[in-house]
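Hi there, hope your week has been kind to you so far. Thanks so much in advance, here it is:
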Amino acid sequence: MDIVEVKYFDGQVTAFQPRSGYRAGTDAVLLAASLSGKAGTHFLELGAGSGAVSLMAAHHHPDCQFQGLENNQDMLALARKNTTAHHNIEVGEGSVTEVPQSWHLKFDQVFANPPYFDEKKAVRMSEEKAPSFVNTEMTSLADWISAMLITLKPRGTGTLIYRADKMEKVLVALAGKAGRLRILPVHSFRDEPAKRVIIQFRKGVKSESALLCPLVLHDRDRPEKFAKEASEIIAGIRKIKR
C-alpha cells in the first residue's frame, strides 16, 4: 500500500494514511471530539481503520486506554504502524460480527464510524474507498450497533457518527436496548439540512433523550473556511459539548 503522512490538530497528531482510497477526515475529527472520559476509562473503537480516530481521541484523553478492532489486513497493519509508539492504544484483528468473547461487557465506552451505505450502487466511489463506506454482504448497521452493545458494560456509553437522512436505522437498532440518547445534528451550512448526526447513548438506561443544538461547519460569507466553533474542534483545541 502506498501511504502518505497526514497531520491533524495543527500537526499535533500525525497518522499514515493510504495515498489513494479513504483517509480519515472531518467525520473522524468530530467523532474523536465527541468523546469524553475520566482517567482510566477503557474505550473501544470498532472499525479502527488506520487508527486515526483513536490517535485523536488519545490526544484529548492521554490518561485513558484505547482498544481498536479492524478486519482489513492493510488497514490493520497501518493502524499498528501508527499506534506502535502509543502505550495506551492497541489494535486487534477481527470483525464486528465476530467480536472476541473476552471483549463482551468489557468496555466503558465504545465508538464507531460505521459504513454509510449498504449497497455500493447507492453511491459512486473508487474500489479503494468502498470498504470504508459500504457494508459487505455479511454486515449491516445493525451488526455494528449490536457489537457496540455487546462490548459495552451495563450503563456504558456508545457514540457513533452516521448519515442524518438514515438516522432512523440507528434509532430502531437501539430501541429498547439503550436510552439517554444525545443527538447532535452536523450541518455544512446553517440553512441546509444536516448531513451527519453524532448519536450518543447509554446501554440499558431508560432516561430521556435530547436533540442538541446543531454544529454548523461553515458560514455562508466564508464558505471555504470552517466556522469558529468548528475550526477550534478541527484544530484540536475544543471538544464537542453535550
